[in-house]
Amino acid sequence: MASAAAEAPAPSPSPTAAANSRPRRVLEELSWDDSFVRELPGDPRSDAIPREVLHACYTKVSPSAPVDNPKLVAWSQSVADILDLDHKEFERPDFPQLFSGANPLVGSSPYAQCYGGHQFGSWAGQLGDGRAITLGEVINSRGERWELQLKGCGKTPYSRFADGLAVLRSSIREFLCSEAMHGLGIPTTRALCLVETGKSVVRDMFYDGNSKEEPGAIVCRVAPSFLRFGSYQIHATRDKEDLEIVRHLADYTIRHHYPHLENIKKSEGLSFEAAIGDSPAIDLTSNKYAAWAVEVAERTAFLIASYTPNTTDLPGKRYCFANQPDVGLWNIAQFTSPLTAAELISKEEANYVMERYGTKFMDEYQSIMTRKLGLPKYNKQLIGKLLNNLAVDKVDYTNFFRLLSNVKADHNIPEKELLVPLKAALLDIGPERKEAWISWVQTYIEELVSSGVPDEERKAAMNSVNPKYVLRNYLCQTAIDAAEQGDYDEVRRLLKVMEHPYDEQPGMEKYARLPPAWAYRPGVCMLSCSS
């Protein structure tokens, strides 16, 4: 929530300057906490034998992935700055040993979390951290809490039939995607570093019986919390006594991650009163759990209005582009269900949470689309026609919206020149479709002229929300191919480009190109989520 600006404020320090002003710590000086382990019920066993773990939020278990001369593939400077970690630490000879889990980090208290969840719409029961182990929570100099987690570091009780390991290709994708999404301004899990283990992992990439050995790897993921909706769901599906765990977990989450909701007042934060139909008004100031659920729903709506994951899913499938808003609402319904079962919120409050999701999604979506087009206000008809044109002609969204800022607010542009600024995006369109696009551009220019915003001012604003660079699958694959041969330079170059996706970055234009023909082969355009 923004605070009112004081008169004539002093300039804010740049992110780089702010990071440089923080204390720099070596690994042994990190300030660790173990609130999750300390405050929540745990598994009395600490072995990694696959099993159902009851009445517990976690199991204490240590990394066990085999390693042999592990190597640091890449690391994120901005994540190191979040943790106040001295950049020289990444040059330590033992750094790969520490972040492959071969050697324990001083102060860490590793555990694997217990949670359940749905897979493709069906309840799958207990899932849990099957190949991820949280090392603990680091408190930085700002008092922020950041959990560090190693993914691919060995078996846990939640591994089921799997080996708890990860391969280099999927780990590179996760590392780069985490940081690329952050660069785009999308709230997401971050990644501190990526380590190749030096040992092979057997994988059947296409699930066709042709297994082969691949390089193993481990990503160090970083987030304020790795709690998920399934962390609450699993306990609500078990014995009645486990509903108390839902309450404990909700209290823990609010205490550490939503402390502003502990003692909310009518004048603070969310708009706390609303009526649903003929029902009484919902007063969220009287129930912190309902206020929390609303904030979670609104954050989810913001995320989905900003970003569409899993673009490799086919049209019409569960996680395809068009289904994201509905899937998000469905997820919120699954989140409110255990809260209702534990009597933390009423059914009326649960309905209101879902209503707020829909309202927030539409507000954010309209705001984002308005800014992407450089318009002064939302124009449903103009944007609807544009989205239809983009879909019909299979136009690349990223490149189109970036080029759109080059259209001038000028009624006098000859018709034959109207599409010139968009030529690189409107490929292979016939005369009929060309007419449709000319018609749309003419209407768009009318909107621009009426807004009165100078072209250069609008262009700068549009380029700040329409990235030039996005992490395309083929770019990842190029980096993966090199890394599997021991060359990590392309992973590091790609990371640097994706850290600043809205900048022009002269000399990096090749990273904005459309996918080449080879990028449509299986393993590049269609991926497994569990490699």
Automatic annotation (TrEMBL):
Q: Where is the composition biased (Low complexity)?
A: 1-21
Q: Name one Pfam family in it.
A: SelO
Q: Answer whether the UniProt record assigns the keyword Cytoplasm to this protein.
A: no
Cofactor(s) needed for function: Mg(2+)
Q: Per its UniProt record, what InterPro entries does this chain match?
A: SelO
- Transferase as a keyword of this entry, yes or no, is yes
* Segments forming a coiled coil: none
Q: Which UniProt keywords apply?
A: ATP-binding, Magnesium, Metal-binding, Nucleotide-binding, Nucleotidyltransferase, Transferase
What GO molecular functions are on record for this protein? AMPylase activity; ATP binding; metal ion binding
> Could you tell me which residues belong to the region Disordered?
1-24
The organism sits in which domain of life?
Answer: Eukaryota
Classification via PANTHER family: PROTEIN ADENYLYLTRANSFERASE SELO, MITOCHONDRIAL
- Name of the protein this chain belongs to: Selenoprotein O
